[in-house]
């Protein structure tokens, strides 16, 4: 007996650290769960290395530091999806009851974790194969995959039989390792209360890990875009996370109303104008803009700066400069904007492409509307190659600056701005307080004056360099609950929500005037193109259910080369990006459904495509029509049947073309290395 004990003691003292860890986890459930989590991380590490090596052409421009950062940040995504996979089994393993400590019960849930891990590995492999086809991880197109699951599985069995055999072999090998490592020997429970405390602590840890850390919002695909390198974001993401989140979004499949080539032809025809060069059939919305050739001899040596100012909830209905053209009496809420409108070009029939701020961001930053069934920016659509405003500006050697009046993480603009090519990003936390009292904590962000003056400081600094700058500003004071920082801006008695909104608009109008004065004083005003618009209409207007009024917003362009006056052509958010390219004389590739608002051709045939929920509205000079992808649900009065049919076909062609091209990642070709 003594010899046996001595031998066991000798083996224990000579055991390797790994053996000691394995022995410890057999006695301690918490060590076991930690070891299981580490084992689950291993396939994710292998998958990320394989993605980097097999598709090196996608990542060759990343330096070593960027690759290391992608692997490091990628752990958040790996741990998040692993945590959700292990969550329920972990609870059952930690139940503070004697029967829950039985070896059979413990082994059962350990093996369920292993089966869940195999499912995650299947997702990693499938996504890696898909990455080779479209150059990104799986997104909302998963809905179309589900519709054709049976034939796709049959295809996989034939086309990837070798890969499946390799997966089966490694699954068996993994099961053997799992059995050797995760083999619990359950101790007698002594303190059930300690077991309960341990369960609660593990639950708290799972919540933090599953959310991707101690953050305000759960981790999302958009958080992978923490820099302006899409390649780094793709390396950061893992396929299991991308697929599971796409499945959770439950986007419906795309409806087909005509052959895709017909849909594309109709869409291209509607976009054709002064610069209608569609060069690549594989990317039918992609055009090469050679606006530099249009620069006049008098253009200054330094290209113009561009500032895009997006005003929260500014609808055309409350702006006197536009009300005058609608033959409506003045309100008096926007005196400074009205005066500025006389110095620039005012578009009186300009429309938002949706009814939400995040939809406006997609339309302005990437010149594409957010159609029914399509993910929003911040939900994964940034995986696609698109013509992002900041990236286009950087290609023209512009400095890029993004500010929003709300908090940094609001709308995930901290990630979206980086993906869109903006090198500098500030939120409400970064704005010095210029008023006697800050906004209450529970109210959206900071006052507009704080944001616009901080923007002026950044623009003034950028002006000192040889590079032009692109600034993008999103305000928030005119968002409900409507309030102003001081009594002097309460022009209207606050007896209604409308009057409260008008007061907030009156204040925001003053803040814009202060910014313009600061820009003149700083010396960059004369060489800066200001593009001022709203993100959507306010919720306090009387729209009489006239569909165009649901989207009617201002657009004012002021700056060098702008002919002052009123322009009544139809336009929308998606037209801003190609307009900037023409005004700033950019020579660059562009893919979207916008047309420059300076294009003199086919002005009467311009349309605006807008979305409200599951309904798409098309607004034209001949009338408007609404469609819910099943049938027409509304149209303007006295619209002839022939015109109604033409507008319906154009609406459906736009929807079908954009939806399929987004699913196939064929909006814009990959950048040439």
Automatic annotation (TrEMBL):
Mn(2+) binds at residues 312, 535-536. Substrate binds at residue 479. The keyword Cell inner membrane does not apply. It is found in: Cell membrane. Residues 304-584 form the Sulfatase N-terminal domain. GO terms for cellular component: plasma membrane. The active site is at residue 357. The chain crosses the membrane at residues 29-55, 75-96, 108-131, 160-182, 194-214. It is a multi-pass membrane protein. GO terms for molecular function: metal ion binding. Gene3D superfamilies: Alkaline Phosphatase, subunit A. InterPro entries: Alkaline_phosphatase_core_sf (IPR017850), LtaS-like (IPR012160), OpgB/LTA_synthase_biosynth (IPR050448), Sulfatase_N (IPR000917). Keywords: Cell membrane, Manganese, Membrane, Metal-binding, Transmembrane, Transmembrane helix. Coiled coil: none annotated. PANTHER family: LIPOTEICHOIC ACID SYNTHASE (PTHR47371), PHOSPHOGLYCEROL TRANSFERASE I (PTHR47371:SF3). This is LTA synthase family protein. It comes from Undibacterium parvum. The lineage of its organism: Bacteria, Pseudomonadati, Pseudomonadota, Betaproteobacteria, Burkholderiales.
């Amino acid at each position: 007996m003594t010899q046996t004990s001595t031998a066991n003691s000798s083996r224990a003292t000579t055991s390797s650290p790994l053996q000691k860890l394995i022995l410890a986890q057999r006695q301690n459930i918490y060590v076991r769960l930690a070891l299981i989590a580490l084992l689950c991380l291993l396939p994710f590490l292998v998958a990320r290395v394989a993605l980097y090596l097999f598709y090196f052409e996608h990542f060759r421009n990343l330096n070593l530091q960027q690759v290391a950062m992608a692997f490091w940040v990628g752990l958040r995504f790996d741990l998040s999806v692993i945590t959700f996979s292990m969550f329920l089994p972990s609870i059952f393993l930690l139940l503070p009851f004697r029967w829950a400590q039985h070896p059979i019960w413990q082994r059962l849930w350990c093996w369920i974790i292993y089966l869940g891990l195999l499912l995650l590995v299947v997702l990693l492999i499938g996504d890696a194969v898909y990455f080779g086809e479209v150059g990104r991880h799986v997104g909302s197109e998963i809905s179309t995959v589900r519709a054709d699951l049976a034939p796709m599985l049959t295809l996989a069995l034939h086309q990837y039989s070798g890969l499946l055999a390799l997966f089966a072999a490694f699954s068996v090998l993994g099961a053997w390792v799992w059995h050797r490592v995760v083999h619990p020997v359950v101790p007698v429970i002594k303190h059930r209360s300690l077991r309960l405390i341990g369960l609660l602590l593990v639950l708290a840890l799972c919540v933090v890990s599953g959310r991707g850390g101690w953050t305000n919002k759960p981790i999302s695909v958009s958080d992978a875009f923490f820099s302006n390198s899409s390649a780094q974001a793709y390396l950061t993401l893992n396929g299991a996370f991308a697929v599971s989140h796409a499945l959770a979004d439950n986007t419906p499949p795309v409806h087909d109303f005509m052959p895709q080539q017909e849909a594309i032809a109709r869409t291209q025809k509607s976009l054709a104008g002064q610069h209608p060069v569609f060069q690549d059939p594989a990317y039918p919305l992609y055009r090469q803009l050679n606006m530099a050739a249009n620069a006049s001899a008098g253009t200054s040596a330094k290209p113009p700066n561009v500032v895009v100012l997006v005003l929260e909830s500014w609808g055309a209905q409350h702006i006197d400069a536009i009300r005058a053209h609608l033959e409506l009496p003045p309100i008096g809420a926007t005196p400074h904007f009205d005066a500025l409108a006389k110095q620039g070009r005012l578009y009186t029939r300009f429309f938002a492409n949706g009814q939400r701020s995040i939809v406006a961001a997609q339309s302005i930053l990437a010149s594409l509307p957010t159609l029914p069934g399509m993910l929003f920016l911040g939900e994964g659509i940034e995986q696609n190659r698109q013509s992002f405003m900041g990236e286009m500006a950087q290609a023209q050697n512009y400095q890029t600056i993004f500010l929003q009046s709300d908090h940094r993480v609001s709308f995930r603009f901290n990630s979206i701005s980086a993906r869109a090519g903006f090198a500098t990003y500030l939120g409400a936390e970064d704005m010095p307080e210029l008023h006697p009292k800050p906004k209450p904590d529970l109210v959206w962000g900071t006052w507009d004056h704080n944001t616009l003056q901080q923007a002026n400081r950044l623009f003034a600094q950028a002006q000192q360099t040889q590079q032009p700058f692109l600034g993008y500003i999103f305000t928030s004071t005119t968002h409900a609950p409507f309030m102003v920082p001081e009594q002097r801006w309460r022009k209207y008695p606050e007896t209604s929500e409308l009057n409260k909104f008008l007061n907030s608009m009156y204040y925001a109008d003053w803040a814009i005037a202060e910014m313009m004065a600061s820009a003149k004083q700083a010396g960059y005003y004369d060489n800066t193109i200001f593009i001022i618009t709203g993100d959507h209409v306010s919720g306090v207007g009387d729209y009489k259910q006239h569909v165009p009024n649901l989207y009617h917003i201002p657009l004012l362009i002021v700056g060098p080369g702008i002919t002052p006056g009123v322009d009544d052509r139809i336009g929308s958010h998606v037209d801003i990006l190609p307009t900037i390219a023409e005004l700033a004389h950019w020579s660059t590739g562009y893919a979207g459904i916008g047309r420059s608002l300076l294009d003199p051709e086919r002005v009467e045939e311009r349309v605006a495509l807008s979305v409200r929920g599951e309904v798409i509205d098309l607004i034209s000079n001949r009338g408007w029509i609404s469609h819910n992808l099943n049938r027409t649900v509304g149209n303007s009065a006295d619209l002839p049947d022939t015109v109604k049919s033409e507008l319906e076909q154009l609406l459906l062609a736009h929807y079908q073309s954009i939806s399929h091209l987004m699913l196939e990642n064929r909006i814009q070709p990959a950048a040439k290395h």
